[in-house]
Amino acid sequence: MAEVREITxxxxxxxxLALSAARLLPFGAGKGHVMRRFRVGRAMTIGxxxxxxxxxxxxxxxxxxxxxxxxxxxxxxxxxxxSRIAVETVKDMFSCYQSSESPAYFxxxxxxxxxxxxxxxLDDGRGGASVGAVLIRDGCLYxxxxxxxxxxxxxxxxxxxxxxGHTVGMLAEGRFMEGAITRQQALELLEDKRLxxxxxxxGFEEIxxxxxxxxxxxxxxxxxxxxxxxxxxxxxxxxxxxxxxxKCQQKAxxxxxxxxxxxxxxxxxxxxxxxxxxx
Length: 279
Fold this sequence. Notes:
Elements: H1 2-23, E1 37-45, E2 54-60, E3 65-74, H2 78-94, H3 103-121, E4 127-137, E5 140-146, E6 150-155, E7 158-161, H4 168-178, H5 183-189, E8 208-209, E9 214-215, E10 221-225, H6 227-230, H7 235-243, H8 248-260, E11 270-278
Antiparallel strand pairs: 1-11, 2-3, 3-4, 4-5, 5-8, 5-9, 6-7, 6-10, 10-11
Helix pairs in contact: 2-3, 4-5, 7-8
């Protein structure tokens, strides 16, 4: 009976992954349709925290477009310093990006450089940051994540998550799928939001990469969110605000306002970056 339950859970999990992928199939997108212009929206709130530890950056190059969002953590302003270093390092690395360089290789170099830069500035354990970055090249979206920053795409009014992140809960889900832990152990850990992976720690190695690049359609909105954003308001509200009228910048402001006016008493820093492409 236990094996049947586990097989059923695995089947449902694979179905959800396949459904998410199917939602982003490039219906009507022919070869040669390349995003050349981008509208951007970005906004953040400090919430009820004493220090704003989020940071973000946007870069347009001759061969690609890049956005990065970092959510810092640490003591004695260690989180604020870490997120700033992470964003500046990734932007600096992108300034030298060439079209001949694979996005995966770029992300790997940039994230490890950010990790080294944070450790060079702060003692291990004093600060770190979740980092999410997207690169759009030749009409395709590539992404990488370390930590809890979430990457998603809004298409046709539907917000489809791409990344899973590096919380203990997601680690437990993966270990269950591998058969390393029981279903009960996985369920007990599923809501654990603690991070096991981020930049700014000795031995940093793991980066969540895109499995297959997403071919973007015109008016798709690429979304980068810190955990204070997607945990500070419900997914449906974010989706509805993205689907509404108005430019990207206004949508970013509206989503942050939804976080600020939410019912939660304790509010984390929350940040969002929106990128809308045009042919």
